[in-house]
Write a structure and sequence with these properties.
Structural class: alpha/beta
Number of strands: 42
Largest sheet: 7 strands, parallel
Oligomer: single chain
Shape: globular
CATH class of the largest domain: Alpha Beta
């Protein structure tokens, strides 16, 4: 338990002792007041420790519920605290709630149903949301345990009843798959999917597994599987109830999207039809305590909730349900009175302070420090002199270690805890001070929303082949994949890739050569098919390789020049550097930390840095740059931050200024947001060295810009600058340290290809707790637009509305104004005057506008955590990369974000536009990886970094082959000799393939064949074998043969054997002509062979051995021989 010592102190409070004693005597109503910050959660935790009974904390808002839950978890641990969150859908909305919300709700209900002693935190909205009847949840929950006898068929029937759907493999919640005696499923009740293996009717093992690799990760003794919905109602029951309604109400409900689609999303429908009447209160065990947080606010929000529901019913002409709704709300309010209650009021004046049932905790707020460490040390001294115990609670272990370094004189005088609290508090009664580290720096607490289901779709990667996909064969060029073909050759079953080429030619690729085939990713649209037997493909490869040699030579020359040139060696981290890093309001991801360390290491080297940092939208590249800039300034060197747009310059200026405000660092901005006189003054002060960091657009590259001592140039999105500007940047790279940032994902293949020619750091990990962005393509509809805008404004957020035509943007403004006359709205685009644009952006950041209507000028860099809905008009006219970048402007906080892609109401979409929009909807996770949804970002990324000519080459041969050629070229130019290799051909009559009954899905078979074909060593084949056993069960004979032949092929290739013939009684093999033999070597080989052997040497050495064994035994014998030799 993270804060065990503090928890023990809470249970010793006089007020807590008093409440526990009175509750034990059966008294019912109390009030508690006088808390500060997280002291409320601390006192509740102390009471819970004393009474050991369930406590339901009813909060007035979702945010307060999250805050209380986090604080309570810090004191009690996650097992003792559950959140019962409200649905993230509006009343009568047709969408299903988020999976994580349903999971949390069901988990809380299940814990209460088991009579566990827990604290459940309930926002007032979820208190009045219906849920499953306790008996239904119990009946619809499936519990499985290792060793018990269960019928797999019956379990499958139950899963279907619970709403699960059968798939080829499990990727998402609600999926299940059956392969022989193995059942995979993904349920709400556990963070990862589970694999249940049967031996007959007995459950032999239960294991969690990874969605990404599909491999088992952890053994379990049992698993509990919740239903996928909180309601146990089917379509037949709904139809019967609808028959009882008046025709108009029935028509409205039947036209609803959730009714028509027969999909989850019936939460409110089942409620208003009278099926759902239970609430979380029905699950509270006898003797549970209610803590009513801020009763007046609870009452206000309850009334607001009911009024909103009535208004919604009225808008939909469903007023007949109002009386039932009021009865339900009244029944819940009445039910509350059946429990012992503690009313919590933050201010003593609001409680009945004269009553002896009121407990005043008498807590105080901690001192405001604002990042002033001298003031902190003075406060610590005062507390120490007064005999107070001081606890400093840090968000993480790393933050704790940083602060201990900064406050080394106090390291042994105060208690250090890593646990995370939302705010500190002072308890005079116990002479106790609790400080939260973020309050020392005057920033918000770091909050990580719990992500239960962290992995996205992965096994069906963007490289997985489907019939109709275009592919590239290294030797034969671009073809079209038709499917897996099963051929019977010489009485033996073989699976091959069937590829179609120009002129109706066909090519069958055997499984051992699958590595030569890659999915074609080069351009949108259909590529031209190659012709078998022609020379065009080889000519194209040769031409591209020659052009690659020119580009790679320049890269290598720049790299060598930079390594040879002496540069400024920056100092190691100072105390101020550590203070800045400790004040970062978020927890760094591992990739981000690695990038920061790599940049710092480069800065400290005695030659100029030129490092590229690649990271997806919102992955924290700016913080990497900011820390590098601060390091340079601390060594009295100036920093220039070069950005492509005025808006991005403005964003970076605000970010740098805010982060560095507590240090003597002067940050300025050079862009069209500055007047001529302001620009002139900034230029003068740059020359004088009075400006430490200047952030600007291409203005920074003008000849009149002079620095006193420029030490670091940071370039954001270099590819967006023109040719002349890039030439100027290239000159900088020979003079000063350069750090380049790009939000374009860089494929791993490209990183490997450029190894040794470009220093590169990749940030591939999304920030902790970042939620997926709900992405939806909708026909343009004024009601949809209005609902999306009002929902965001209603929860205190703001909206981006993107319309990318300046000529018609005023018309869209009028449309929205007529639709929603009360919202505050502004327009921003490239022709907006500079001073006006700056004011609009500042006012929007200050939340003076609800909605910003703009062109794509917001595409790059804007980081506004309060904007969590984006509406993109005519989304069909955007490229996938643009849509992805635009969507990345939202979802930068712990709020659920929404992206609406509007398309015309009637016009049919082009196929390419339809694919783009579908891909963006499918991959809603931040940093969905390099899936289909990001394929053109990869291509664009390569083109951006390597130039437009290279982009054309990628479109010609595909991205994978392009990088293979690039890697070869760089190795050749560096003088690295290519390793001699052979591709061993093995002739055998053994059946060696993956039967479709064992691995039913053809895509999975292709994936496994490709892994075996690409395997570089025995370990990788053993990994495939282990994977097959784990995912599909015991290996059948053809699969065992396939794996053994793959191992033999690797052994033979390492010995330079070109051909092996396996048969009954005899084995032959031939060595490459590159292998030289003499009498002694042949004699040594002969000594290893216990059977009659014949050697022949015409070109390469040929060996024939008469073993007298069957073919399977000969395979094992030769494997053993090659391993020995």
């Amino acid at each position: 338990m993270a804060l065990n010592n503090l928890l023990k102190a809470a249970s010793e409070l006089n007020g807590v002792f008093f409440l526990a004693e009175r509750l034990a005597k059966g008294e019912k109503n109390f009030a508690i007041t006088g808390w500060a910050g997280s002291g409320k959660a601390w006192a509740i935790a102390g009471l819970f420790l004393r009474i050991e009974k369930p406590i339901a904390v009813i909060t007035h808002s979702d945010q307060e519920a999250e805050t209380l839950k986090e604080d309570l978890e810090s004191f009690l641990g996650q097992d003792k605290v559950k959140l019962f969150p409200g649905w993230d859908i509006d009343f009568l909305q047709t969408e299903a709630p988020e999976a994580e919300i349903i999971a949390e709700r069901l988990e809380a209900l299940a814990a209460l149903q088991k009579k566990e002693s827990i604290i459940v935190v309930v926002p007032v909205a979820s208190l009045f949301q219906p849920t499953s009847q306790p008996v239904m949840l119990k009946d619809y929950t499936l519990r499985l345990r290792v060793g018990e006898e269960r019928d797999l068929g019956e379990i499958v029937q139950t899963l279907e009843k619970l709403g699960f759907k059968r798939e080829a493999w499990v990727e998402e919640i609600g999926d299940y798959s059956v392969r022989g005696g193995i059942l995979d499923l993904f349920a709400y009740s556990i963070d990862s999917p589970v694999r249940i293996e049967f031996f007959g009717n007995q459950i032999e093992s239960i294991r969690t597994f990874s969605v990404l690799s599909q491999r088992s990760t952890e053994k379990l003794n049992s698993v509990t599987i919740f239903p996928l919905r909180e309601y146990g109602v089917n379509m037949e029951q709904i139809n019967l109830r609808l028959e009882e309604l008046r025709p108009e109400a029935r028509r409205i409900l039947e036209s609803a999207e959730y009714y028509q689609s027969n999909q989850p999303g019936w939460e409110w429908l089942t409620f208003i039809l009278g099926f759902q009447k239970s609430t979380v209160l029905d699950y509270l065990p006898t003797g549970s305590i209610l803590f009513m947080d801020e009763p007046e606010l609870l009452q206000e929000n309850q009334q607001r909730l009911l009024a909103g529901w009535k208004s919604n019913l009225s808008e939909k002409s469903l007023q007949e349900f109002e009386p039932e709704l009021e009865r339900f709300v009244g029944a819940v309010a009445c039910q509350l009175s059946n429990f012992k209650q503690i009313n919590g009021e933050a201010l003593p004046a609001l409680s009945d302070s004269g009553s002896d049932s009121v407990v005043n905790l008498g807590q105080q707020e901690p001192p405001l420090l604002g990042g002033n460490f001298k003031l902190l040390e003075k406060s610590l001294e005062e507390y120490q002199n007064q005999g107070y115990r001081v606890y400093l609670v840090c968000d993480s272990q790393r933050q704790k270690e940083r602060l201990q370094e900064i406050l080394e004189n106090w390291a042994d005088k105060i208690s250090w805890e890593a646990g995370g609290l939302n705010s500190g508090f002072v308890v005079p009664e116990l002479k106790l001070v609790v400080l939260a580290d973020h309050q020392i720096f005057g920033r918000l607490p770091f909050r990580t929303p719990a992500r239960r289901f962290k992995e996205g779709l992965a096994i069906s990667s963007y490289k997985s082949l489907n019939p109709g996909d275009y592919v590239v064969h290294i030797d034969y060029g671009i073809g079209k994949f038709k499917g897996l073909a099963t051929l019977i050759l010489d009485g033996r079953t073989r699976e091959c890739l069937e590829l179609a080429y120009a002129g109706e030619d066909k090519l069958y690729v055997p499984i051992e050569e699958f590595r030569l085939v890659q999915k074609f990713i080069g351009k949108e649209g259909e590529p031209t098919l190659s012709r078998l037997g022609g020379t065009a493909w080889e000519k194209a490869k040769a031409r591209i390789k020659k052009a690659l040699a020119d580009m790679a030579e320049e890269l290598l020359q720049l790299y060598a020049e930079r390594k040879a040139k002496p540069g400024f060696s920056f100092s190691e981290d100072s105390l101020w550097q550590k203070e800045l890093e400790a004040s970062f309001p978020y927890q760094e991801t591992p990739d981000q930390l690695r990038a920061i360390e790599e940049v710092k290491k480069d800065l400290q080297l005695p030659h100029p840095m030129d490092r590229l940092v690649c990271g997806d939208v919102g992955y924290g590249k700016t913080e990497v740059a900011l820390r590098a800039a601060f390091k340079a300034v601390l060594d009295h060197r100036q920093v220039a931050v070069l950005v492509p747009t005025t808006i991005l310059a403005f964003q970076h200026f605000n970010t740098f200024s805010e982060r560095l405000k507590d240090f003597p660092v002067r940050v300025e901005m050079l862009s069209r947001f500055r007047t001529r006189s302001q620009q002139k003054k900034i230029l003068e002060e740059l020359t004088q060295g009075k400006v430490d960091i200047v952030i600007g657009t291409h203005m920074l590259l003008q000849g009149k810009v002079k620095f006193k001592d420029l030490g670091l140039l940071i370039i954001d999105e270099e590819h967006r600058f023109g040719v002349a500007q890039k030439e100027k940047i290239k000159k900088f790279k020979r003079l000063v340290d350069v750090l380049t940032l790009t939000a374009t994902p860089i494929p791993r293949t490209m990183q490997m290809a450029l190894f040794g020619a470009r220093d590169m750091s990749a940030i591939n990990t999304p920030p902790a707790g970042r939620l997926s962005i709900h992405t939806e393509t909708v026909r343009f509809n004024s009601q949809v637009v209005a609902q999306a805008i009002l929902r965001e404004i209603g929860r205190g957020g703001q909206v981006f509305f993107v319309h990318n035509r300046i000529q018609t943007i005023e018309g869209v403004y009028r449309f929205i104004k007529e639709l929603l006359p009360d919202i505050k709205m502004a327009i921003a685009h490239g022709q907006t005057p500079e001073d006006r644009l700056e004011k609009i952006m500042l006012d929007f950041m200050a939340k003076k506008y609800d909605l910003l209507l703009s062109t794509t000028i917001i595409e790059s860099g804007l980081d506004l955590s309060n904007v969590n809905t984006i509406i993109i008009n005519r989304a069909d006219k955007f490229g996938l990369a643009e849509l992805y970048q635009l969507r990345g402007r939202v979802g930068r906080s712990d709020q659920k974000a929404y992206a609406y892609l509007l398309v015309p109401p009637e016009a049919s979409l082009q196929e390419t536009a339809r694919k783009r929009l579908k891909a963006l909807e499918q991959f809603s996770e931040l940093g969905s990886g390099f899936h289909l949804a990001l394929k053109d970002l990869e291509i664009r990324g390569a083109g951006n970094l390597l130039g437009p000519q290279q982009h054309g080459f990628i479109a010609e041969v595909g991205i994978d082959l392009y990088f293979r050629l690039l890697e070869q070229t760089i190795q050749e130019l560096k003088g690295e000799k290519a390793k001699l290799t052979v591709q061993t051909k093995i002739e055998t009559d053994l059946e060696a393939y993956l039967p479709d009954w064992y691995v039913p899905d053809s895509r999975q078979r292709i994936e496994i064949y490709t892994k075996l074909s690409e395997a570089q060593n025995q370990k990788e084949v053993i990994e495939v074998e282990s994977d097959l056993k784990d995912r599909f069960g015991q290996l059948p004979e053809p699969v065992c043969n396939l794996l053994e032949i793959s191992q033999l092929r690797l052994l033979a290739q390492s010995e330079m054997i070109e051909k092996i013939g396996l048969g009954d009684s005899k084995i032959t093999w031939e060595y490459s002509t590159e292998v030289s033999w003499n009498r002694e070597k042949i004699d040594n080989l002969a000594k290893l062979i216990d059977f009659p052997v014949e050697f022949r040497s015409k070109a390469g050495l040929k060996v024939s051995v008469s073993t007298g064994k069957d073919e399977k035994s000969n395979l094992g014998w030769l494997k053993k021989l090659l391993q020995t030799g």
